[in-house]
Design a protein that fits this description.
- The chain has 416 residues and is of the alpha/beta class.
- The protein has two domains: 31-53 and 89-337, Bira Bifunctional Protein, Domain 2 (BirA Bifunctional Protein, domain 2, 2-Layer Sandwich); 350-411, Rossmann fold (3-Layer(aba) Sandwich).
- It is 40% helix and 18% strand.
- It is built from 16 helices and 15 strands.
- Strands 1, 5, 6, 7, 8, 9, 10, 11 and 12 form a nine-stranded mixed sheet that branches.
- The chain is elongated, with a radius of gyration of 27 Å.
- It starts with a helix and ends in a 5-residue tail after the last helix.
- Bound molecules: histidyl-adenosine monophosphate.
Length: 416
């Protein structure tokens, strides 16, 4: 064997995971399970049922409607051995839409579906953004009624409450793409102006005010008379800058109705926010995003909206749909910020510390009997001192311990 290949063989592998994906040690797994189970239970309380799919999808699924950024810059895409282009799912909505389209005739509508898949996006890992995250998806297919929009926002609100969040800890910001389109129509904005304006709105909170003003004036350079209106409307979220005609339009009245109904359902932390546009191209109407209100973590936690035309990419008739996606990473930051993390517990009920090798077989028999009764039992075989064995049990968060030696077995008495 050459020196070189010997050297290669002895080279140590890194124990780091691939950048931006997740390892779950048991305490992390405990928290992760708690998050996903709480999400799932809340969705089920509203009558949603679980579906699932593979992480691999044909790449063309995302090219149709997801939006340029996600397709060109953020997907993990490769060519398989049969020359097909394959993508690791970056979101679940196209998969859900595909599955609904495939069995549309057999499914009973309105369809309430939820899922908690892991998703992959090639992003620069940072707080709240990783390359792999899990996302609760809650979607309601087959009804265009405002009640469906209200229900979806109510589920999002209920999920937050299920994690112990109070209304002052988060805020629901709502807008409507259809309403924005109406305003743009009213002012006869060109396609180009609308597009660049939407991108500016999306960037608004990340740039200086002066920059925002100059960008807006630049986008509307041929329409100086509109600068004032749009600076107030978009820059300051001041709806009163708009004329009566826009404020009385159906799309705005619908937004008002959503807010009113939420309030009558005791959801009081929702408000209109023109800066909510959301990234994906498929949204058609109501869109919303939920923000953490803490100054320490003042950021968007998750969002969703109505997407009535997505099924049309499968050649299906128009099928209205509304839903949201809530990520586990941003949620975990929220729970940490507000001190809402649960205390770790172990699935193991009892730890048997064995103080004498002669009683191992007794420990086995007792553990087997208890397991048959439904009690989860682990035995310590290390033969370490009692104190060390007890320390191990508490490090593992096991709530009950018995220590056994020859005396205990002889007297048939144990301390729990
Ligand atoms: P999205 O806004 O791209 O929407 O993602 C929803 C949520 O997933 C985000 O607000 C965030 O909580 C989480 N998320 C997204 N990307 C990452 C990342 N790189 N790292 C950590 N968390 C992330 C959608 O995906 C839509 N498909 C949601 C939807 C369902 N709309 C209707 N139904």
């Amino acid at each position: 064997m050459s020196k070189e290949s010997k050297g290669e063989r002895s080279k140590k592998l890194s124990s780091e995971s691939y950048k931006g994906v997740r390892d779950f040690y048991p305490d992390d797994k405990f928290l992760h399970n708690y998050i996903l189970e709480t999400m799932a239970q809340t969705a089920e309380r509203f009558g949603y049922v679980e579906y699932g799919a593979s992480i691999l999808e044909n790449s063309e699924l995302y090219e149709a409607k997801s939006g340029e950024e996600i397709v060109n810059e953020q997907t993990y895409t490769f060519t398989d051995r049969g020359d097909r282009r394959v993508t690791l799912r970056p979101e679940m909505t196209p998969t859900a839409a595909r599955m609904v389209a495939k069995k549309k005739r057999e499914l009973a509508f309105p369809l309430r579906w939820y899922s908690t898949p892991n998703l992959f996006r090639y992003e620069r890992p940072q707080r709240g953004r990783l390359r792999e995250h899990w996302q609760l998806n809650v979607d309601l297919f087959g009804t265009s009624s405002l009640e469906a929009d209200i229900e979806i926002i109510s589920v999002a609100h209920a999920v937050m409450e299920a994690f112990g969040a109070k209304e002052d800890m988060f805020a629901i910001h709502i807008n409507s793409r259809a309403f924005m389109d109406h305003v743009y129509d009213f002012y006869s904005l060109s396609e180009e102006e609308r597009y660049t304006l939407s991108k500016l709105i999306d960037r608004k909170n990340k740039i200086e005010k002066e920059r925002f003003v100059s960008d807006l004036q630049n986008i509307l350079k041929d329409k100086a008379d509109l600068h004032e209106v749009f600076l107030r409307f978009i820059g300051e979220n001041d709806f009163s800058a708009l004329p009566e005609h826009c404020l009385n339009h159906k799309t705005k009245r619908e937004l008002d109705k959503i807010l009113q109904d939420l309030e009558s359902n005791d959801i009081r932390n929702a408000k209109l926010d023109v800066s909510i546009v959301r990234g994906f191209d498929y949204y058609t109407d109501m869109v919303f995003e939920v923000f953490d209100t803490s100054p320490e973590n003042n950021r968007s936690l998750f969002g969703g909206g109505r997407y009535d035309d997505l099924l049309a990419i499968f050649g299906e008739d128009h099928l209205p749909a509304v839903g949201f996606g809530m990520g586990d990473v941003t949620l975990q930051d929220f729970l940490e910020t507000h001190d809402l993390l649960p205390t770790t517990t172990s699935p193991t009920d009892l730890y048997i510390c064995v103080l004498d090798k002669n009683v191992y077989s007794w420990a086995h028999t007792t553990a087997s009997r208890l397991r048959k009764e439904g009690i989860n039992v682990a035995i310590d075989y290390t033969n370490k001192k009692a104190g060390d064995q007890v320390k191990t049990a508490s490090k593992l968060f096991i709530p009950h311990i018995i220590c056994i030696g020859e005396d205990e077995v002889e007297n048939n008495t144990f301390t729990l």
